[in-house]
Amino acid sequence: MRLHASKGAVSWDGLGAGVSFACAVHCALLPLAFALLPSLNLALRSFNHEWHGLAQWLLWTHEAERIMASVVVAFAMTVLSAGFAKHRRHSALIVGAVGALMLLVGAFAHWHHSQWLHVALQVCGGLTVAAAHVLNLRLLRAPTRERSESVNAQAVMS
Fold first, then answer.
1. pTM of the predicted model, to two decimals?
2. How far apart are CA 83 and CA 104, in angstroms?
3. Where in the chain are the domains?
4. pLDDT tens digits for 26-52?
5. DSSP for 50-115?
């Protein structure tokens, strides 16, 4: 049985993977939700709901998307860097950087002519960042080479 130093601690990679996956699902389903926007807009206006301005900002501007992409990337790079400091393997950082690049290009580039490319970059970027968190978590939980060699040496001696 392997014991992990992180047992019982908050799994930042698990949180990051879940949030990144939710981001990817959101980006994939949002174009389908645009068909409902006129109805949602009318519903919010008819009730004169206090959140109408926030809903309008979230649904009709790119600033909310850019803020969320920036927060996701900053969180991912912080967690993946902390993981790298422990396991010293570059693979999770590389996968995370590719996903972050897709997210940021999808969020900050001007996609006037191709909304589908924007959506594809956001979905693929979110899924790639989620995969980087899962990979980082696996690398953190994998036995290190030193631990493996000491266990093998003890097995040979006994």
1. 0.68
2. 22
3. 12-142
4. 777 766 666 666 666 666 666 666 666
5. TTHHHHHHHHH-SHHHHHHHHHHHHHHHHHHHHHHHHH--SHHHHHHHHHHHHHHHHHHS--SS-H
